[in-house]
Amino acid sequence: DWNMPDYITEAVEKIRAQVGTDDVILGLSGGVDSSVAAALIHRAIGDQLTCVFVDHGLLRLNEGQMVMDMFAKNLGVKVIRIDAEDQFMGHLAGVTDPEQKRKIIGREFVEVFQAESGKLVNAKWLAQGTIYPDVIESAGKGKKGQTIKSHHNVGGLPDTMKLKLLEPLRELFKDEVRKLGVALGLPHDMVYRHPFPGPGLGVRILGEVKKEYADLLRQADAIFIEELRNTPYEFVAGQAVNTEELPKNWYEATSQAFAVFLPVKSVGVMGDGRTYEYVVALRAVQTQDFMTAHWAHLPHSLLGKVSNRIINEVRGLNRVVYDISGKPPATIEWE
Ligand code: XMP
């Protein structure tokens, strides 16, 4: 149990001693770990750090802009944003198999990152937001363990680059990483966000991924998350009771929550007309370790409001369903 300012001072000194005057590159994903690693390394070596942020077009609503605002604008970190949406969509066209989609997204990610970081010829170090549980996990093998790691941690850089690894979070657990992030000035909401998978919306659009689907899903998902954040928490019979501290709102009361795009059309009515549009499913779970999970017993009033808003505000969706499957046998993601 360490004191945070002291920890930061120590970590900063260690990073400076390690890299000296060398340049460092880091793949920023918008996730908590890479964000905290970037903030810490920037605190230590300032402009010797360059972050590369690959926007694969499968991020949540306004996420790319938020990442740029937070790092480039607020913290003054050098960030190169690469808009690779067309490239990713092109490679995903016609592909429906979930693991195949993961492979393609992971492969393209590494390719885009390598091409860009290869231009930073002076970089001698590759920084990663590897945390302690990753270190342990990569020793064993989970269901998607290898895929998760190979995607997260931008593996397989070409030998010619000969980059050394800088992993300043290697000894920290997730809650410590979060506290560190807040102490480094990252916004609380960002640091306490639900986990988001590396392949992003690519595994939340069932079957073939299309930009049109991603745009619909982004809007529905943003409405769901906004309402979870804005609805005060209350105990509902049957829900898993969570933490020591009572959650303030339903976002905090759930471990992961998101919308899933179903490429299925169903009939609806609007005014005098008949509609024939797509369906989204809402998924919200409570879990300690993500290995098993309960579906969250969200208040019906909250679900009703989210459903109304999605159907009224998102042209192209006319039906919302709620996923009441536990893990096991269902997984948290639908793919
Ligand atoms: P499942 O769906 O297996 O998810 O119950 C368990 C946790 O893992 C996340 N997940 C992934 N994370 N790349 C990632 O970085 C992936 O391919 C991937 N698949 C699932 C999921 O969001 C949940 O937190």
From TrEMBL:
<dbReference type="GO" id="GO:0005829">
    <property type="term" value="C:cytosol"/>
</dbReference>
<keyword id="KW-0547">Nucleotide-binding</keyword>
<dbReference type="GO" id="GO:0003921">
    <property type="term" value="F:GMP synthase activity"/>
</dbReference>
<dbReference type="GO" id="GO:0005524">
    <property type="term" value="F:ATP binding"/>
</dbReference>
<keyword id="KW-0067">ATP-binding</keyword>
<comment type="function">
    <text>Catalyzes the synthesis of GMP from XMP.</text>
</comment>
<comment type="pathway">
    <text>Purine metabolism; GMP biosynthesis; GMP from XMP (L-Gln route): step 1/1.</text>
</comment>
<feature type="binding site">
    <location>
        <begin position="29"/>
        <end position="35"/>
    </location>
    <ligand>
        <name>ATP</name>
    </ligand>
</feature>
<protein>
    <recommendedName>
        <fullName>GMP synthase [glutamine-hydrolyzing]</fullName>
        <ecNumber>6.3.5.2</ecNumber>
    </recommendedName>
</protein>
<keyword id="KW-0436">Ligase</keyword>
<keyword id="KW-0658">Purine biosynthesis</keyword>
<keyword id="KW-0332">GMP biosynthesis</keyword>
<keyword id="KW-0315">Glutamine amidotransferase</keyword>
<feature type="domain" description="GMPS ATP-PPase">
    <location>
        <begin position="2"/>
        <end position="193"/>
    </location>
</feature>
<comment type="subunit">
    <text>Homodimer.</text>
</comment>
